Amino acid sequence: MRQKIVAGNWKMNTTLQEAQKLTAEVLGMAGEANSNIKIILCPPFPYLQTVKNQLGGSGIDVGAQNCNEHQSGAYTGEVSAQMLKSMEIPYVIIGHSERRQYFHEDGKLLAQKVDGALANNLKPIFCCGEPLDIREAGEHEELVKSQVEESLFHLNAEAMKKIVIAYEPVWAIGTGKTATTAQAQEMHEVIRKHLASKFGNDTANQIPILYGGSVKPDNAKELFACPDVDGGLVGGASLKSRDFVDIIKSA
Ligand code: 13P
User: Fold this and answer.
1) pTM passes above 0.90
2) Which residue among the candidates 69, 96, 130, 188 is catalytic per the annotation?
3) Looking at CB atoms within 10 Å, which of 98, 136, 226, 247 has the fewest?
4) Whose CA is nearest to atom 7 of ligand 1?
5) Burial (CB count within 10 angstroms: exposed 0-12, middle 13-18, buried 19+), residue 78
6) H/E element, 106
């Protein structure tokens, strides 16, 4: 059985006080959900330690939203995987479409970030997904396969087993427009088969592939019921504790 995961990506949202309140609320309601589901909260960098402390021994994990590809050095304003490791942060999102789009991160750079994260015992949540024009041109499968190839195919199978993949079609992020279950399942299967072609079935079948893009309490259940959808990476709805916990309950 693959690990089911629901992760909340808070992006550049919340004040410290709001982050503490949101964490406390999720913590208070998390007991409603099946304890086999791995819950991960990804707050902004400055709140990681606070949120981590608050979560204590609850079993809910924290993740960072990004890391720099270098170990340390003169990179003002950046945060390294080594720093996250020293804080015992278990997960880090790598290659979110907003980082690809606004910070011009490409597949080669993301491969370096993946390597840096793994070298520091962090589990990367590697994001892939196509923009609307690529979907409309019918080139989404090729693009997503190439994103996975560029940043993950240099790994060996053992390292690959530490990766979580999030398929997030860019046209579904923050738009209220969700992929249909057929579209989600189709792409998750494409990704899994592509992983199998490189790493073998055994490895491919162990890798959680999360769906992201306007996941809400009213669509989560059917998305998570798809055989190759192993949970979700949730943006907007993860900022509302009730919605987020209802999404977790759908997994
Ligand atoms: P929304 O859930 O707000 O569409 O964001 C998805 C996302 O980008 C999660 O990383």
Assistant:
1) yes
2) 96
3) 136
4) 235
5) middle
6) none
The CATH H-level superfamily of 4-250 is: Aldolase class I (3.20.20.70)
Strands 5-9 and 231-234: parallel
The pLDDT of residue 1 is 80
Nearest-angstrom CA–CA distance, 43 and 32: 22
Residue type, 1: M
CA of 222 to the centre of ligand 1 (A): 17
Is 104 a known active-site residue? no
DSSP string, 39-95: EEEE--GGGHHHHHHHHTTSS-EEEES--BSSSSSS-TT--BHHHHHHTT--EEEE-
User: Which residues in the chain belong to E strands, given as ranges?
Assistant: 5-9, 38-42, 61-64, 91-94, 123-128, 164-167, 209-212, 231-234
Distance CA 97, CA 249 (A): 26
Residue 232's identity, in one-letter code, is: G
Nearest-angstrom CA–CA distance, 29 and 58: 12
DSSP state of 25: H
Q: Is 96 a catalytic residue?
A: yes
Torsion over CA of 136, 141, 144 and 145, rounded to 10 degrees? -160
End-to-end CA distance of the chain: 14
Pocket lining for ligand 1, CB < 6 angstroms: 9, 96, 168, 173-174, 212-215, 233-237
Rounded distance, CA 5 to CA 215, Å?
13
Q: What's the average pLDDT block by block, 10 residues per block, for the chain (251 residues)?
A: 95 98 97 94 98 96 98 98 98 98 98 98 98 96 98 98 98 91 97 98 98 97 97 98 97 90
